[in-house]
């Protein structure tokens, strides 16, 4: 058995020992008193007296040990569950990556493991063994009474929980959605406060929240009723069983010592069982949480990693996208429908188009976050295979690049380069990455937030990235070591975008991807930022996704995407002279830009 | 007992009744244990006939029934308290207005109002009954013991106070340790969620796998920190447990020896053995429920802090509500909006967000507000929406004071009924697309909704959604792009044809040029015959305006001048 298994056994043993000490304490005390009433010589009682004192002391200590070992096991189990969940979430396309609330719920689900152990499994084992011990003791004293006790324990330990669970299964299933519904209504009220106030819809939203609350309260009252019923029936079973044991013992003429010991051990043997009856309903929620976690782990990743990874070509890289088709779901129209483009070293390509045209999907495919339905993305360098082409500071050595470099990958030797599919997805993102959609600010210092894109970067490089992202004034004001993302020290949309840009510049990948770098910036800052950006990327292989056309005279090629297809391509000069989407857009922008 | 919670319980009749019932049942059931011990000791010692077992069964049944009553009443009481608190909190937050609900705080408030209040359950339905029983039953047991066997009663009387004393001593130490570690614990606990949320970013920079090690390290740290706290925290329960079990030994051994000496009879001895633990049990129950109960107290503190603490800060709420229509600006035609020396300051901030701003916006005029982000443009819109009150100066609509110290909720409602507004980041509610569009016009027909969507250039993508206008939005619904969200928000504005004032906050931010052109055209149409204030960054939007007002550091720095065009403008 592994160490985790032994820890659980140890925790269970401590729990069992604590309960048994309690049972032994009351049994010995009952024996001591009833036997003393028969006035035997004192020597006959000394063992019992020592026993009472020993059991009394050990019960408290054992309980302490039980609680500590139990919580330790539970925390370890939770840690393991979290690590496994995280591993399952690492590949792109894992579920629950959309909503923040969904993620929080998933993280909360990992607490269920703790509940399962501390409130479910461990006490159940202790209760089971205690009941058994009382029955075995009864068998020695009076088998008939032991059978009565066994029957009572079975009713309290099996029949009642099973019956109550069957009764409440439907409600337990409705409880979680009712909670979620209330949370949604409350979140709508608070996050949408401005919209509600502006449109005088606050009272309606408040009423909707009150309704959701009333529905949840009704379910919770039902739950309270069930657990009260469980307590009620448990106490009833305990009392009646004890009375029946006494009755059987009296009828059998068992004598006062045996009767007292039987009666009191029966009474106490129910104690660990009683809280378990009501716990059955809570365990339904726990098992639902565990099921959700299993589902997450069972979800296949969005992209399949190659069985025999190819080596990354060395030298300046060329990326050729050919006839790429990407479909997000089988029943939906393709997000990209036969897109081709080439990124040669040092060339800058801009992708423009209306929202929903497939611009971000193209970047996802390049970053190997989605699996193309057909078409290829090929990477070729001047040398076939070698050390990861100096992927800048971003190379943190996690993927074992050296090993891959030495293996003769399937595409490595070919003159046409490697198919992106033959590269591990981490390697693909070492080649092509940058500023992605929805950048995230971690609860960490500004420095760490930036440095995650270049763990080995020196102060000089950090400062340079900050300067080029035009973030230095803000950093001076906020401080490099201020923890972001907590206590309202949040980052505004524009600052977030600049932080993301600084990360991309610091990471300095062979092929730089920029997804709407000027998003959420005001006009003047956006113009300035785009200007700086175009300066900073001069001579670098760059793919820029944007909806603004200012400054695009500088890029080498512009690709216009609409409905997943390339509708126009060329330089700015060519495109403004051709009727079509780009010219329309340019005119509408240029017309109003003269100020 | 929590002071504010007690006040709340007193003021709500249903809560009070259920709580009293719950406590009474708990105390009564606790007292019945005495009777049960009496009967059992009687039968076991042979003092009572075997038929007394029937009485014993009846007592057990009564205890069980009281337990049921206690549990049901507790469930009613705690759900009622939660509902009341939840409702008051939400109403309070609404009064406070959107300007005070910064996005970060609102996340915490969502948790507090939702699951946070559930922490009250163990306090109300577990701890309070335990306290009630703990206050009555030990005394009753002691009285009965005194009557039966004085020397045993003395032992119990002497050891009983040890439980609260030791409990308090250990508890005080625990509290100090826990508080010291609390911050560290919550930081470590939150780390996992933080990393999971940031996974896309980590993935982009090849740091996802590296973070797995960090997670393993941090969770291990978290566990050992938690265990350090628990080692101390569980000491208190060990003391309770030890005191109770040792006291049983302290009582049982002398009783046995006295039986041996013939100075005590068996019925009394058994009664003492059965009763003595019952004196300690209620106190132990209190102790074990204390920790969970304190979380409930914290939740109550947080809730009342929002309810009371921020009431003082909000002047809008404190203002008396004048009678309806008392001075509400008359609706019907596009109004004139006049700001006179308005200064606005956010609470807790030194510099003013708007300083001494005077501005006259003529009826039907389209004003573009420009300036750097943070200059005060959005503040001005929030002022007109009534989310903020000026520190000094007045806002007049057709000469009637709108935003002043005397403006009540009803005036605001009447004024807002005339507005159509599009915020910078519109919120989409967890309901259908159609419901989202008719937010400000609940009575709108499907045709009107569709017309509004068409005007906002939203009809196209909406009809392509899986269930068209019935498609659910929000976190568990479909995801819309920023531009699509913006167009839904514009459709909301179009769905209020009666509005005669238009307030737009960068409606074309985050849109591509072609959508922008469409939105600009739509906005131009929407602004016809209305007084419009548009915060604009994009040239196309600025072009649309009759007049451009530049705001810098909370002041109007330039004004292209009021063009005295009539309604609709002459463009």
UniProtKB/TrEMBL annotation, chain A:
The keyword Disulfide bond does not apply. The chain crosses the membrane at residues 9-33, 116-140, 146-167. Pfam families: ABC_membrane, ABC_tran. It comes from the Bacteria. It is a multi-pass membrane protein. The keyword Magnesium does not apply. Residues 383-402 have a biased composition (Gly residues). Residues 9-270 form the ABC transmembrane type-1 domain. PROSITE patterns: ABC_TM1F (PS50929), ABC_TRANSPORTER_1 (PS00211), ABC_TRANSPORTER_2 (PS50893). It is found in: Cell membrane. Keywords: ATP-binding, Membrane, Nucleotide-binding, Transmembrane, Transmembrane helix. SUPFAM superfamilies: ABC transporter transmembrane region, P-loop containing nucleoside triphosphate hydrolases. Residues 382-419 are annotated as: Disordered. Residues 319-588 form the ABC transporter domain. Its main location: membrane. SMART domains: AAA. This is Thiol reductant ABC exporter subunit CydC. It comes from Planomonospora alba. The gene is cydC.
From TrEMBL, chain B:
It comes from the Bacteria. Signal peptide: none annotated. It is a multi-pass membrane protein. Keywords: ATP-binding, Membrane, Nucleotide-binding, Transmembrane, Transmembrane helix. Gene3D superfamilies: ABC transporter type 1, transmembrane domain, P-loop containing nucleotide triphosphate hydrolases. PROSITE patterns: ABC_TM1F, ABC_TRANSPORTER_1, ABC_TRANSPORTER_2. The chain crosses the membrane at residues 20-42, 48-66, 127-147, 153-172, 232-253. It is found in: Cell membrane. Residues 337-570 form the ABC transporter domain. Pfam families: ABC_membrane, ABC_tran. Residues 19-295 form the ABC transmembrane type-1 domain. InterPro entries: AAA+_ATPase, ABC1_TM_dom, ABC1_TM_sf, ABC_transporter-like_ATP-bd, ABC_transporter-like_CS, ABC_transptr_CydD, P-loop_NTPase, Type_1_exporter. This is Thiol reductant ABC exporter subunit CydD. It comes from Planomonospora alba.
